[in-house]
Amino acid sequence: MNRPSIAKAFSQPNGTRLGRNHQLRPLLGGTGAAHATDLLRAWEQRLRPEFKARWLDLLGQPSFSADQYDPTPRVTEEMEGPDFRAVSLLQPTGPGQSQRVIILHPRRPAGDPAPCAVVPFYHPEKSAGLAPNSATTGLRLEDDESVATEVRQIGRHLARLGFVVACVEAFPFNTVPDPCSDAPFAWWKSAAQKILSDHPEWTGLGKLTHDTSRALDLLLSQRGVDPSRVLAMGHSLGGKMAFYTGALDERVTCVIGSDFGLPWRSTNWDAPWYLGDKIPPDDSAMAHHELLALLAPRPFFLIAGETDSSESWQYLDAARPIYRLHGSDNALGCIDHASGHTPSIAALDIAYAWLGEMYGLPHRRWRD
C-alpha cells in the first residue's frame, strides 16, 4: 500500500479568515484575466523584481561593502559525537564583526552529496544539542537525558536525518558585549543602537538576514554538500531569519519556519532590533505573503502554534496563486499544533516527513 503524501495532506489551508481591516492585496492585481503563461511571465519579468526591490529596500543596506573585510573563518574547536562531528568557527560578517557558527557533519549523510541546512537561533549550541557557553567551556554534548527530544534542537535533528548543518549565532549576541543590565531587553536595545549608529540605512532584521546568508556561504563551502538541497529552518527569532533569508537568497531551496509570526501584529516586528519605525503600517501596505511569493516555487512549511495561528494559513493561501503558476501548489504546507510557542514533537514529525518528500530523503528517525 502506498503511503499518503504529506505534501498533499498539509498543503490546503483551512483556518480563520482575515478581518476586513487586514485584507491581503492580490499579488497579480492589475494583470486582468490573462492566460497562465502570460501571468507567469508578468510575475517573473516585472512583478517579482519589483517586490524583491521593495523588500530589500525595507531591510536597508550596511555602510560597508564586501571588499572591506576578510571573510575567512577561523576554526576554534572540534568535537566528535555519536551523531555528528562538530566544528566551531568564528566567521567575520563585516568590519569588526563576526559570528559563531557550529558546523555539524553527520555520521550518516543522507546521500553523496548530502543535503544541508542553515539553522539560526540565539546561540548555536542550543540548536546543535551542545552544552551552553561552549565558546568558553569547550564543545560537549548536553548532559540532559531529554536532549534527544528537545524540540528546539533543530540542528541536531537534521544532523540525525543526514544533513550537514550550520548552527548560527544571532544578533544581538554577535554584535555588542553583554551590557550586564537588568533592564528588559537591554542587550537587544544596545545592539540595535549600535547598528543604527554605525549603519543608519540598515535595520536589525537586515543584519539578521545578512548574517544568515554569510553562514550560508560557509555552509556551501563545506565538502560533500548538495547545492540543490539547501534548507533554511528556524524557530521563533530563528524562523524570522530563515524565512527572510530563504525568500531573498535564491541559494536556499526550501524553508521551514516555526511560529515566527506572519502577521505584523502577531509579534514584535516593530522592535528596533527587527524593523523599528520602518515597519509597514498594516498588511494592506506590505505583507508577508509578498515575501513568501518571492520564495516560489521553492517549498515552504509553516509550523504554527501561538504567534502563528490558523489565521497565518491565509498568508500561504494568498501566495498560492504564484505557486500555482509554477505548478508547485503542493510545495506550500502548514500544521497548526495550537499547543503554545514551542513546537510539539508531533508537529516536528510531520514537518520532517514533509521535508523528506521534498528532498527525497531516506527514512530515518530524528529522535530516540
Structural notes for this entry:
The structure is a single chain. It is built from eleven helices and nine strands. 33% of the residues lie in helices and 18% in strands. It has 368 residues and is an alpha/beta fold. Mean pLDDT is 91; it is low at 15-21. Helix 2 crosses helix 9 (288-295), helix 8 crosses helix 9 (288-295) and helix 9 (288-295) runs parallel beside helix 10. The two termini are 26 Å apart. A hairpin with a 2-residue loop joins strand 2 (84-94) and strand 3.
Summarize the structure.
Helix content is 33%, strand content 18%.
Q: How many DSSP-defined strands? A: 9
Which outline best applies? globular
Tally of helical segments: 11
**Proportion in helices:** 25-40%
Question: Helix and strand string, N-terminal first?
Answer: HHEEEEHHHEHHEHEHEHEH
